[in-house]
Automatic annotation (TrEMBL):
<dbReference type="GO" id="GO:0016740">
    <property type="term" value="F:transferase activity"/>
</dbReference>
<dbReference type="Pfam" id="PF00535">
    <property type="entry name" value="Glycos_transf_2"/>
</dbReference>
<dbReference type="InterPro" id="IPR029044">
    <property type="entry name" value="Nucleotide-diphossugar_trans"/>
</dbReference>
<protein>
    <submittedName>
        <fullName>Glycosyltransferase involved in cell wall bisynthesis</fullName>
    </submittedName>
</protein>
<dbReference type="InterPro" id="IPR050834">
    <property type="entry name" value="Glycosyltransf_2"/>
</dbReference>
<dbReference type="InterPro" id="IPR001173">
    <property type="entry name" value="Glyco_trans_2-like"/>
</dbReference>
<feature type="domain" description="Glycosyltransferase 2-like">
    <location>
        <begin position="7"/>
        <end position="169"/>
    </location>
</feature>
<keyword id="KW-0808">Transferase</keyword>
Length: 309
């Protein structure tokens, strides 16, 4: 496997201030048999010039635009990059991520030792302006500690952490859902974990995940609860149905979804189509907390609407 082609797939939209640091970290990889496919989502900043600069510097960088007939957004860009990739292994990055020099070499070495694995995960830190100020995200002392019980934690792994066998990804009906606009990475990763827990974690392989004021993650967090839930409900609905279809809804998972969906009912626009969709969905799957929770929610929402609470 030491000579297998790795396809590095990067969606980009207006990340010109960070692109060079990301692409330099790809160039510095000790594992050299890679292609880097960057799909630009019609950026309006200086991204195009920077991408062409790197394509001229190294032919392993391959630059594309999101096709006009595909939905705007990172999901379509990620999927399109996958469709044109040639590698035996696949790793998505974001265009402001930074990876250490042995990021791919260490994960490929894990595959060499355990050739039947479906994917290998890296370690991850978050940072803002400099990786010297990195902060760990997970307690990763135990190789299988992070992600097995979804109901016990919301810490599903982040997109750039996984190096997949393409043959494994080819078994999915679809990858990133182009119809949802938030929490799409978690929705995909839940389907990955439900299909296979045949993975290992190589803690020497490290991705530095940038969190800054202009990032999509920060923008989402800064939304009102109503806006966050309007964007994220479709993904959480799909996540629940995926886990439910595999009979994986244990008590912890049930409590997690009860808390999420009941909080959504208290904050989504009262009487909107999405409110009613969630209300009947929660009732059908017994996700309302308590026998009279539905009535309580209506009472609270009515009182809020007339500004009595």
């Amino acid at each position: 496997m030491h000579n297998s082609l790795v396809s590095i797939l990067i969606p980009n939209y207006n990340k010109a201030p960070y692109l060079r640091e990301t692409l330099d970290s790809v160039l510095q990889q000790t594992y050299t048999h890679w292609e880097c496919i960057i799909v630009d989502d019609h950026s309006t900043d200086d991204s195009g010039r920077i991408l062409e600069e790197y394509a001229g510097l190294d032919s392993r960088f391959k630059i594309y635009k999101r096709p006009e007939n595909r939905k705007k957004g990172g999901n379509a860009a990620r999927n399109y990059a996958y469709e044109i990739s040639q590698g035996e292994f696949i790793n998505w990055l974001d265009s402001d991520d930074v990876i250490n020099k042995e990021f791919f070499a260490d994960k490929i070495s894990t595959f060499e030792k355990h050739p039947n694995l479906d994917y290998v995960l890296s370690n991850i830190y978050k940072f803002q302006s400099s990786i010297s100020e990195k902060i760990p995200i997970y307690d990763s002392n135990d190789d299988k500690k992070f992600f097995v019980n979804f109901g016990g934690t919301n810490n599903i792994f982040q997109t750039p952490m996984a190096l997949y066998k393409k043959s494994f990804l080819n078994t999915f009906d679809y990858l990133f859902d182009e119809e949802i606009i938030a929490v799409q990475d978690m929705e995909f990763h839940v389907r990955v974990l439900l299909k296979s827990l045949n993975y290992r974690i190589n803690l020497k392989s490290i991705v530095f995940w940038r969190i800054n004021e202009g990032s999509k993650t920060t923008s989402f967090i800064n939304n009102s609860y109503s806006e966050k839930y309007k964007k994220s409900y479709p993904a959480f609905k799909k996540i629940f149905l995926s886990i439910h279809s595999k009979n994986k809804i244990d008590k912890k998972a049930e409590l997690f979804f009860q808390n999420v969906f009941n909080d959504m009912l208290l904050n989504l626009p009262f009487g909107s189509s999405i409110f009613w969709d969630l209300y009947f969905f929660a009732a059908k799957h017994r996700l309302l907390k308590g026998q009279f929770q539905g009535l309580k929610i209506f009472g609270i929402r009515i009182l809020k609407s007339v500004k009595l609470i």
